[in-house]
Amino acid sequence: MKDEILHSIEWNMTKINGFLEKIVTAPPPVELKRLKFYHGVYLESLFSLIDYMDEMDESISREIKYIMRNLGDDSLYYFRELHYAITHRGFDISTHSNIVENNVRLMTPECVLNRDGLPCPSPKENILLKSLLIFDMATRVAVLLKLSQLGCRYEKDREEDEYFESFLANINNAAIPGFVKGFIFDHRREVKEKIDSRELESSLIIRVKELLFPESMLNILKILY
Questions:
Q1: Euclidean distance between CA atoms 221 and 201, whole angstroms
Q2: Taking burial as the number of CB atoms within 10 A of a residue's CB, which of 147, 155, 197, 223 is the most buried?
């Protein structure tokens, strides 16, 4: 069962990281329809991972909402309805865009309706990518917490996860917002409190954790400034 969960996380995180890179690196001229597609698949992949974990009785939705609220962003419901609107109603999120630091950024849609036809409260950020990144990072941390609860460790020395410790060191020195550093370090302590001593196949766990916190995220998180 754990291997199945790990393989699903690996597949979805591969999609999430791939399309996030395409969204982040979008210098003009860029076809807005293509950018709309990238955002759509990116959102779809995030919710595919969340819904899969819920179906496996390993829900991470509550943890994601908790992390986002701590960051002052209560947009999980908004993104769920935006994903539904894009997928099932053909909602066009590319009608408003702007150039920010030599890349095309879609603006946050303000007229997203839920499935009852009522407007959803919009995120505070005008740039869609900024709110998406908070949602993204909350999801990554929630998945890591869940893996720790499931006992997914791969080091012989179970007290330290060298890859994650290296990522934390880079985070601490990187030019990214303090509140992002804060919630990562706060949840890092929670992860260590929940670690189980059981081990799974090391190579698969290594791949999954590297996908959850790739080095490229250090530069991407600078967008939050």
A1: 30
A2: 147
Among left, alpha and beta (phi > 0; psi -120 to 50; other), residue 96 is beta
Highest mean predicted confidence (pLDDT) among 103-107, 151-155, 177-181: 103-107
- Residue-wise DSSP of 143-162: HHHHHHHTT-B--SSTT--H
pLDDT score, position 49: 95
Which stretches of the chain are assigned E, i.e. beta strand?
97-100, 103-106
Q: How far apart are CA 203 and CA 83, in angstroms?
A: 33
Q: Is the dihedral of CA 173, 166, 69, 192 positive or negative?
A: negative
The whole-angstrom separation of Cα 200 and Cα 147 is: 11
Q: What is the pLDDT of residues 55-94, one digit of tens each?
A: 877 789 989 999 988 887 888 999 999 999 999 888 899 9
Whether pTM exceeds 0.70? yes
